[in-house]
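Notebook, bench 3.
Goal today: get a predicted structure for HAD hydrolase, family IA from Actinomyces viscosus C505 so we can plan the truncation constructs. The sequence was checked against the plasmid map this morning, with no discrepancies at the termini. Length recorded as 226 residues. Pasting the sequence as submitted so the record is complete.
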Amino acid sequence: MTTSPTPNFTVRAVLWDMDGTLMDSQPFWDEAFIHHCQALGGDPRPELVAQMTGASIRQARELIAATGATRSWDDPATQEVFEAIAHDVEASVSAAPPLLPGALRITSALSEVGLAQGIVSASPRRIVEKVASALGDVFAVLVTGDDGVGAKPDPLPYATAVERLDLRPQDCVVVEDSPTGAASARGNGIHVVQIGTTKHFPADPGLVVVPDLASITPHLLLWADR
């Protein structure tokens, strides 16, 4: 029988990006964005749809206005459209959480060895909570797009998670799939495990690359080679 490694070194928490890392809800966002913007006479051109990937709430509202569906990002009608889009995404995530392979395995394993975990995402809180529930509610902190702490690559989202856990940056490891997210974490001095095939910051020793979520183990997240 194999056992999970016992946490050592200074790692006491793993902070997760959500979309593209633990799950893939982007098709839900794209479909809802196109539908609701077109319903108001907007033109959700492919280049605008592409920018919805990783967009903050403010950025999503700017994209809605850019389609011509509303007058400006701060138009109350734009917020109504965004809420309708988010409602559709929440319903889709609730019906069939699009968890990526390995997500439930690794978050459960980390919980079993006693590591704190958190999610740091630009998505609205109600959607992040649905994903957290699908993963067994093993997260001690959720930092979301509703929290008013800025958007990645600003360091503040991850700094907020560290503060809420009452830890130090060197006590944490972040798992990310995007250069903006990795930059947000590294801006706090937090080590990063990056999912992908090309290292975002080649000269950075505080960032290691794995091909996919299924490749991540508790041993790797404990940064056992440092």
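Residues 1-9 have pLDDT under 50 and may be disordered. Residues 13-23+98-222 form a domain with the Rossmann fold fold (CATH 3.40.50.1000).
Flagging this for group meeting.
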